[in-house]
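Document type: protein sequence-to-structure record

Subject area: structural biology

Format: plain text, a pair of labelled lines:
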Amino acid sequence: LRGAIADFEAAAKLRPGDAQWHLNAAEAHRQFGNLDAAAQAIERCLAVRPDFADAVMIRAQIASARNDLPAALRDADRAITLDPGAAVLYVDRAQIRILARDFAGAISDADRALSLDPAHPGAAGIRANAKRLSGDLEGALADIDRTATKDSDAGSIMARAWIHLNRGEIEAAVLDARRALKLRPKGDEILSQAAEILYHSDLTAEAKEVYDRRIALGNAKAADYAGRGIVLEVLGDIAASAIDFEQALKLDARCAAALTG
C-alpha cells in the first residue's frame, strides 16, 4: 500500500488537473490511516472537480474516521445527491448511519442499494447488522437466510455471529467470526467485530491477536484501542493496557470512558 500511495501521489503531481489521481491518492492514504494526508488529497481532488460524488463520499469517510459524524453525514448526503443511482454510495452512507446509531436510516439505505444492485456484495450484510443493532434479531437472521451470498459475504456472516452470541450459542458465534475473518482478513470493521466476539467468548489471547491486526492496519478507532486495553488487562499486561486506554481517550474520551467504566 505504501508503494501505491507513492505512485498515486506521483501521478497526481504529473497530472494535477486529473481528479481521479487525487482521489486514488486520498483513498490509499485513508486505508493506510493517514487521515491528514487523505484529507489534503481529497480537497485537491474536489478543487479540480467539485461535483465528484465519489470524492465527496471519501471526504465523508474521512470525517467518520475522525468521529465527526455530523460532517460525515452531510457529505454522504451530498454525494448521493450528486449521484443518486450509485448503489455503493448508499452502502457507504449506511455504514456511517450505523455509527451514528440511525439504524432505520441504515436499513433504508441498504434497501435502496439492493434495489439498484441486487448483487451488491456488502449491502445485505450491512442491512442485517443494522437490524441486529436495532434489536430485530429474527429479522436480521431472516435477512441473512434470504441472501444468496450468506455464506460468502463477510458482513452477513459477522451479523450472524453476533446473533449466535446474543443467543448464547458461543461455538457458532466463534465459527462465524473466524469464517468472516478468512473472507476479509484485512477488513477493518470485520477485524474489530471479530475481536470483540472472541473476547466475549473467553478466547482472550485470540482476541488480542485480532485486535493487533486491526490496529496494525492503521486508522483504528477508540473502541479498538479500548477493546485491546481490556483484553491486555485480562491477560495481566497492565502497562500495555494503560497505553491503549490512553490512546483511546485521545481519540474519543466518551467512548473510552464507557468501555473502561
